[in-house]
Amino acid sequence: xxxxxxxxxxxxxxxxxxxxxxxxxxxxxxxxxxxxxxxxxxxxxxxxxxxxxxxxxxxxxxxxxxxxxxxxxxxxxxxxxxxxxxxxxxxxxxxxxxxxxxxxxxxxxxxxxxxxxxxxxxxxxxx
Amino acid sequence: xxxxxxxxxxxxxxxxxxxxxxxxxxxxxxxxxxxxxxxxxxxxxxxxxxxxxxxxxxxxxxxxxxxxxxxxxxxxxxxxxxxxxxxxxxxxxxxxxxxxxxxxxxxxxxxxxxxxxxxxxxxxxxxxxxxxxxxxxxxxxxxxxxxxxxxxxxxxx
Lengths: 127, 157
Fold this sequence. Notes:
The structure holds two protein chains of two kinds. The longest helix of chain A is centred in the last third of the chain and has 16 residues. Chain A has a single domain, classed as Cytochrome Bc1 Complex, Chain D, domain 2 (Orthogonal Bundle). In chain A, strand 1 and strand 2 form a beta hairpin. Chain A has six helices and two strands, in the order H-H-H-H-E-E-H-H. Chain B is mainly alpha-helical. Chain B is 42% helix and 0% strand. Chain B is built from seven helices and no strands. In chain B, helix 3 runs antiparallel to helix 4.
């Protein structure tokens, strides 16, 4: 149900309740049987390199409850954990855009739905 | 020295003042009227660079290569790209000094940028408080507003 709502929301641009929890549920559904939503695995994933120079933590910080800093430009990046920044993970299209871009920088590929679910589960767990 | 046409001197000063005003404008034409897409897409990783900081050729090059944006994937959807491109083109510098393109389309490798910063030593650029030529706000406190007034420059230690 959440899946269908989110997809229709994406397609039509209609407003609906996009919350971190709803986005996590969406990514878990998208993972289609693959385990997703493991916070511990998400933390490990976030803090290690994946073949390229950068890890997620390079710009967001090891525990993104505070401000990060862009690795090249040094512009401040607001906290990523939703409990510390109400603007995070309340827009699926925005979340998808940033996962797509940043995963390509960190992993040289897009992240899978289960990887996104792991990371988001960890971020939501940070209080 | 007595000049045969004293008024020329006055005119010269006035022209020079106008030119200076022009330079200030050309460097910091500002971000007024920037579309929401510009703010959303272009100011997350770096400050919003005012369109008048460079010319059409550089902007076109930058906007055509967003998937490999100086080593980072900054790709955006077509609608946002078109909206942002139109605004950049409309407000890009038309002044040949600023509009001149650079080999990699960077503002910071443009001839005017290099010349304007020629008194800044390489060690200064590397200071922890500066780190990058992209970090305009380190010295130009109004940079995020597109204000590069030379009088307000403070180079941090």
